[in-house]
Each structure stands twice: as C-alpha cells, then as structure tokens.
Amino acid sequence: MKIEGARLDILPTWKNLNDMLVELVDRVPDDKMEWSPKPELWTFHHTFLHLAEAREQWMNRAINDGETDIGVYQNVHTKQEIKIALRQTWERIHRTFNDQEKLDATYRDRYWAAAPLRTGHWVAFHLLEHDLHHRADMLLYLALLGIETSQVWTP
Description:
CATH architecture: Up-down Bundle
CATH topology: Four Helix Bundle (Hemerythrin (Met), subunit A)
Largest sheet: 2 strands, antiparallel
Radius of gyration: 16 Å
Mean pLDDT: 91
Number of helices: 6
Strand order of the largest sheet: 1-2
CATH class: Mainly Alpha
Distance between the termini: 47 Å
C-alpha cells in the first residue's frame, strides 16, 4: 500500500525518547528495580524488559527483519543488560523504519492467524505509543518514590 502526501519523521524524536528510557534505568535505585506500587502492577524491571521484548516481537513476528532474537526475558537481567537491550532494539527499529519501503509495506503477525494487516507506519506509531505509555508509568513510579528526574517537573 502506497501512502501519498506529507511524511512525518518521528525517528529523531523517538531516538531521544529511547535515550530517556536508557537514562531512566539509572534513575531507579538498585533496591527498587523489583518494586511496584501494588503487587498486581509490573515492577520497574519487568516494565523495562517488556519494552524491549515488545519491540523485538514486532520486528520478529510481523516485520520479519531477519535479525536474531536477543531473548530479552531469558538473557536480560542487570541494569547494564537492560540498557544494552533498549539500545539494540532501538537500532532495529531505526534500521527498519528509516527505510521508506518497509514503512509503506504491510505486515501481519506470523504466529496469530487472525492478526489484522498493518502498515509499517501503523507499527511504528504503535511502538512509539507503547514506549511513551510505559515511560509514563515509570515516571509515575519514580514520583511515588520521591525520586526526581530531569525528564519531567514534579512537585
């Protein structure tokens, strides 16, 4: 499907967001990585892993970019490994969505028979929204702990 008209280049903004996610890893005290405000909510650690895993799953299952799965839940444990995973998955996103043909192509989850057909544009905006959503979760968690960040103003 060819999309005509103006293009919106979100990659520079998204790279900045990824840099902020990497920075957030270091803002979380080591003894709070497994903390969440309520038992049924995800911890900082789980949320960071989920971000990287979701990116990787879209690249593998729908986009099929041919890169090796880093196995986030199996292989990423420490803060340093989380930062590496966020950077590696960002590089995959950048390589994919910096390619106009891949943006204009359509994709379907290869492991879900009822998956709707999505454009690369849809996948990019979906993943960007996902990153923003979970960054907001973690900024709220930090605020609840009384930890200030340079990313937002908190009273």
